[in-house]
Amino acid sequence: MNVLQFTDKGIWCPAGDFYIDPWKPVQRAVITHAHSDHARWGSAHYLCQKETVPLLQLRLGADISVQGMDYGEMLNINGVRVSLHPAGHIIGSAQVRVEQNGEVWVASGDYKLEQDGISAPFEPVRCHTFITESTFGLPVYRWQPQQQIITDINRWIYENQQAGKASVLLAYSQGKAQRLLHSLQDTVPHFLAHGAIANVNELLRNNGYPLPLVERITPETPKSAFKNVVVMAPPSADDTVWMRRFQPYSLGVCSGWMQVRGNMRRRNADAGFALSDHADWKGLLSAVDATGAEQVYATHGFSSVFARYLQEKGIAAKEVTTAYGEEEIITNTES
Asked: Which Gene3D superfamilies would you find in this protein's record (predicted)?
């Protein structure tokens, strides 16, 4: 039974008549998380995990029609049982479990297995069919523990301060930036931030998340304020006039793509930190194994390689083309 189908609008549940992370406007959209490639404007009604609601409103507009659910809460949609389960990707991220006549499918959205200290930890969900991302579905991508990477970042910041430089960290404004702010707040007394990051940080602080205060950078911020400080900026700010005000500065890029040294050179970065909000090769395999799925669909990323590897392990796996993964393109590095 095909509980879910892949269409030109997105992942569709025919019986429930809803779409999961549709990339075209639909009547009813179930959203895994609030990143732009999974949460698009134009649908009539949205359903998501309750912590994603304010993030979705920030991205799509406060006037959207949106319903929030707790993790594990069960909702009946036209006879189909739908529930959301932690994906560990960013705050509020969820896997979507869909059950019809005893057949269970799970759409993972994006996920990571390592606990980051701020997102609800990934929860394996048993199913017959698993739709998995494969952003980093190559054996070369194997992450170091988060604390080791944070230690490396702190060392880099200290070296920059000794050299009289500001430390500019590029990180996706929704997810990665908060992970860094939360992890560095005990060692960095003061953060300056691009407006995109300051907006998300303020929103989440107002919703009770233990994030440090950041100083929003404005045209009135004096150049003297940038000496030896830590600046948080989205990758879109790289190589812009906005960045020049921090000179002299050292540029650090926080992305899983930094696992491959050539990517750091192409970004003209001074340092690359392979901190990703996605599962690495071992994490992907572990997640698939934990579901017990008999059938796996691999989407966005190295999907053909990952599907072929699963096939060699005796799992019925297929590659599926979707419109996800835009924030992962190395030219944006919002990963």
From this structure: Ribonuclease Z/Hydroxyacylglutathione hydrolase-like (3.60.15.10)
Distance (Å, rounded) from C-alpha 231 to C-alpha 209?
20
Q: What is the CATH number of domain 5-140+277-328?
A: 3.60.15.10
Fold type of domain 146-273: Rossmann fold (3.40.50)
State the amino acid at position 231 in one-letter form: V
Quick check: bond before 54 cis, omega within 30? Answer: no
Q: What is the pLDDT along the chain (335 residues), one digit of tens a residue?
A: 899 999 999 999 999 999 999 999 999 999 999 999 999 999 999 999 999 999 999 999 999 999 999 999 999 999 999 999 999 999 999 999 999 999 999 999 999 999 999 999 999 999 999 999 999 999 999 999 999 999 999 999 999 999 999 999 999 999 999 999 999 999 999 999 999 999 999 999 999 999 999 999 999 999 999 999 999 999 999 989 999 999 999 999 999 999 987 776 666 789 999 999 999 999 999 999 999 999 999 999 999 999 999 999 999 999 998 988 755 433 333 44
Query: What are the domain boundaries of the chain?
Result: 5-140+277-328, 146-273
Closest CA to 256 of 235, 238, 236, 275: 275
